[in-house]
Amino acid sequence: MARIPALSEDDPGTPTEARDFLLNTRDNVTGEIFNSLRLMANHPAQSRKLVELVRSLRKEGGLTRPQTELVWTTSAVVNGCHY
Fold first, then answer.
1. What is the DSSP letter of 61?
2. Using only C-alpha atoms, what is the Rg of the chain?
3. What is the mean pLDDT of residues 28-53?
4. Which residue segment(s) compose the domain that 51 sits in?
């Protein structure tokens, strides 16, 4: 089974665009680099758009922070995500 490589900002083999995506997202959005971001960095242009979408939903969606968290949690439960 093929595996998607988890890219690291510290690996000299990581392409510059992917490294920039990881560092920019850490510094300006999340405060840390989650494993999902390391996988998404394989396609940095699309990943930037996804991060922008999530940010807009969280910040400009008209819901309070607790309401947003409730939506994410409910969505996880409905979809059977166990984390």
1. S
2. 15
3. 92
4. 16-78
Q: Give pTM, 2 decimals.
A: 0.70
CB contact at 8 A, 83 and 59? no
CA quadruple 41, 82, 75, 58: dihedral sign: negative
33 token code pair: 């680099």
- Rounded Cα distance, 77 and 67, in Å: 15
Question: Is the separation of the CB atoms in 37 and 22 below 8 Å?
Answer: yes
Q: How many CA atoms lie within 13 A of 3 on its CB side?
A: 4
Cα 63 to Cα 83: distance, rounded to the nearest angstrom: 23
Please check whether residue 3 lies inside any domain of the structure.
no
Q: Is residue 10 part of a domain?
A: no
